[in-house]
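Troubleshooting: if your tokenizer reports a length mismatch, compare against these two reference records.
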Amino acid sequence: MENIVYYMAVLSTQPDYPSRCIYKEVFVRDRPWFARKRKTCLPPALFAGVHVCFVEGKQQAKLAAGQQLKLISMDRNLENARGWVEQARRVVALTGAGISTESGIPDFRGPQGLWTKNPKAEKLSDIRYYMADSEVRKLAWQQRVAHPAWNAKPNAGHLALVSLERTGRMHSLVTQNIDGLHQLAGNSPEKVVEVHGTIHQVMCMSCRWRGPMQATLDRVRAGEEDPECRSCGGILKSATISFGQPLVPEVIDRALCAAQESDLLLAIGTTLNVYPVANAVPLAKSSGARVIILNADPTPMDDMADAVLRGSIGEILPRLVQGTLPTIHKRS
């Protein structure tokens, strides 16, 4: 039977007053969560992932029979999800920018995202502007010099995926991130599928030469505002996928095939709005895999998931994989 806690809800009719719900002695004001009688603040992570559904009504309105609202316990939700991880043998993790924000790398479209704060910065990620305008390239190179990835360290979320791989359950780690933090944390490079490339390499847009990014950044620091390829004189760019730039078919095929072969898909810190990689979720589901979504905000595929967890990835993901034992491969 589904683990459901029933509660009564009180809605405010004042638009500037936050919606409220009362469950026993817990008073909820979105975030943080307060204990009404004890007047103390409970850790938000304790209730991360709780889904609250309010109904329309007047202040102090009483709910009629059959109108109880469902509050799914995150602890039980997490317990179920942990059991699925323990049972799985072919886990595929799909990670997005949300797993790296706790390492100091801002996302693009979130409240503190790079493009949210500075919409003009999105031009730097458009291949058309980049190839046509040297001023755009100069600004892009300055941003690469100052990119937070050079000083970022893996956080607890990254390390949890390393622990999961060491149990032998990790089939693939598909990431939309370009920061290389999964490899730095200790995940095997052969397990990591970087669908949007990597900032740690530079490539020539003409002769396709590739090399380490830091060597080219040293040229920028030495005064070259828009460094050219030393092999052919072509335009250099980070080995990442920009808007308007085609994805690498072999990489996308590998990512989606991994999803189809999984028996558990973990979607972590991704909005699941970017295609074709977002197709990994329905592909995994249609192939019989369970789907767990861990993200700070709702995604368009939450209804497809077997479990949805909300809150800090660095707090929840270690709890999701903790205690997972190594797989035992039977001899034939």
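Reference record two:
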Amino acid sequence: MVNAAGLVQGVVLVTFPAASTIFTSQGGYGLSSARYGDMFLPQVVTAVAASLLGTGLARRIGIKRVYLLGLASSLASMALLLASVPVKADQAVAYLLLLLATAFLGAGFGLTVPALNRYASVFHPGQVDRSVLVLNALLGLGTAAASAFVAVFVGLASSPATSSGTAWPRSASARCSGRA
């Protein structure tokens, strides 16, 4: 389960960069390159803050709750991404939702990945190096797979059957919650 969570976290982490053409195209959100780049500032800040605060938080509420808080943050990120789709014509509202989404994504990553590393080592005390290496390899595989997932769902979103354009964020949300 830990390795599967690492794979999913990798996919979720790269959903935003993999969808760059959606965010910057006039048919999508129409963001300028600068606004698109700025969209990742909250993610960086919250990822670093969550990573730094996670250990103390784990001492107070336990590693399982930190892990679940990270998963909830990642799920909130995908929900905010989904919520931005119907309002993408109102760039101010959509951009605010995207900034919140990347902030939650950073927090989710900063809380979840250290917890996963901890679980990998605790569940395999005789093979700590191997288990953490496998986990991180699967996290990397997830980041590589995200582009392929987005390409598939963008293709689905442009088909007549899913002309609402919400196929890719719905699928990202399902992957994050484990329902994919």
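Descriptive notes for reference record two:
- The chain has one domain: 2-177.
- Residues 160-165 have pLDDT under 50 and may be disordered.
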